[in-house]
């Protein structure tokens, strides 16, 4: 059973330290939470954190061009 603080729908903030002087800071809403995983919908991110998050996603996804294509398209239709 997930911790109450990490229950779906809850707002949270976090800092992910990548190195002593390098971190990603953002605000998010918990989309899903269980004993083995956590899914977040980002609601805002520090401007200086975004390039670090982007690079982290590119490295783990393995297809940086696909990430760039997805980011070039609007996330929502008006």
Q: What's the tally of helices?
A: 2
Shape-level CATH architecture: Beta Barrel
Instruction: Work out the radius of gyration.
Output: 14 Å
Q: Would you state the CATH class?
A: Mainly Beta
Proportion of β residues? 35-45%
Number of strands: 3
Q: Give the % helix.
A: 25-40%
Low-confidence stretches: none
How do the strands line up in the largest sheet?
1-2-3
How would you describe what is shown here?
It is globular and about 40 Å long. The relative contact order is 0.15. The chain has helices spanning 50-61, 64-72, and strands at 11-19, 22-34, 37-45. It has one domain: Thrombin, subunit H. With 78 residues, it is of the alpha+beta class. It has a 3-stranded antiparallel sheet. It starts with 10 loop residues before the first strand and ends in a 6-residue tail after the last helix.
Which keywords apply here?
78 residues, alpha+beta, 2 helices, 3 strands
At a glance:
With 78 residues, this protein is of the alpha+beta class. It is built from two helices and three strands, in the order βββαα.
Chart the SSEs and their pairings.
Blueprint: E1 11-19, E2 22-34, E3 37-45, H1 50-61, H2 64-72
Antiparallel strand pairs: 1-2, 2-3
């Amino acid at each position: 059973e997930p911790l109450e603080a990490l229950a779906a729908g809850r707002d949270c903030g976090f800092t992910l330290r990548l190195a002593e002087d390098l971190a990603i800071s953002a605000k998010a809403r918990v989309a899903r939470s269980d004993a083995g995983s956590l899914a977040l919908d980002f609601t805002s991110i520090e401007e200086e954190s975004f390039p670090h998050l982007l690079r982290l996603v590119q490295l783990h996804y393995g297809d940086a061009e696909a990430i760039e294509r997805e980011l070039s398209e609007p996330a929502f239709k008006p």
